[in-house]
């Protein structure tokens, strides 16, 4: 697993951004129910993972007030989502707590998804551009630190993060050194 961090000083906004980022909360969640359910179908077509997503889990996450949930729109079509955890939250991997968010200005990205190009036509380099739009939205909302981790098999995500000036870190090593 590789861990990444981004702060505003490292970030460069992409001009002519093709994506629109829509913030989802309890006031507008139901307006996007069909779009989200369609993304859930796309997600399940691509990944064989039984823990997420379902509509009920989406509703619970939005209602928890510990998550920022964004939808990605391109050409008036919802094509992806991004989940960001904020507030007082422990980040656990394989039943080991390895990072704790203790403030409202750190956001941890933990479930980022764009529908496959085989399903939805989108620009080349979409992942990098989409992350740029989400990162910009987070900074506009007052987030001062963006963190995320990537499993080794998600090699395409490394490129998306690194092209947006995220820096590699090693929280697990830090955690075990301080334990």
Q: In words, what does this structure look like?
A:
- It is a single chain.
- The chain is of the alpha+beta class and 179 residues long.
- It has a single domain (2-178), classed as Aminopeptidase, CATH 3.40.630.30.
- The chain is 30% helix and 31% strand.
- The chain has five helices and nine strands, in the order E-E-H-H-E-E-E-E-E-H-E-H-E-H.
- Strands 2-3-4-7-8-1-9 form a seven-stranded mixed β-sheet, sandwiched between helices. Strands 5-6 form a two-stranded antiparallel ribbon.
- Helix 3 (126-140) links the parallel strand 7 (106-114) and strand 8 (145-150).
- Helix 3 (126-140) packs across helix 4 (155-162).
- The longest helix has 15 residues, at 126-140.
- It is globular.
- The two termini are 19 Å apart.
Number of strands: 9
Give helix and strand order, one letter per element, not per position: EEHHEEEEEHEHEH
| Number of contiguous helices | 5
What is the domain tally? 1
CATH homologous superfamily label: Gcn5-related N-acetyltransferase (GNAT)
CATH class: Alpha Beta
Describe this protein with a few key phrases.
179 residues; alpha+beta; Aminopeptidase; 7-stranded mixed β-sheet; two-stranded antiparallel ribbon; 5 helices; 31% strand; globular
């Amino acid at each position: 697993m590789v861990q990444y961090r981004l702060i505003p000083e490292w970030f460069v906004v992409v001009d002519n951004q093709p994506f629109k980022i829509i913030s989802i909360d309890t006031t507008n969640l139901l307006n996007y129910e069909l779009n989200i359910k369609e993304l859930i179908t796309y997600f399940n077509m691509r990944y064989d993972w039984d823990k997420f997503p379902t509509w009920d889990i989406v509703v619970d996450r939005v209602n928890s007030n510990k998550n920022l949930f964004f939808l990605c729109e391109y050409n008036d079509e919802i094509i992806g989502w991004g989940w960001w955890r904020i507030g007082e939250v422990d980040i656990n991997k394989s039943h080991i707590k390895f990072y704790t968010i203790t403030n409202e200005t750190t956001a941890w990205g933990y479930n980022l998804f764009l529908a496959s190009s085989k399903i939805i036509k989108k620009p080349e380099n979409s992942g990098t551009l989409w992350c740029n739009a989400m990162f910009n939205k987070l900074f506009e909302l007052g987030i001062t630190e963006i963190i995320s981790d990537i499993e080794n098999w998600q090699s395409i995500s490394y490129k998306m993060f690194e092209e947006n000036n995220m820096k590699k870190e090693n929280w697990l090593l830090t955690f075990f050194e301080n334990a």
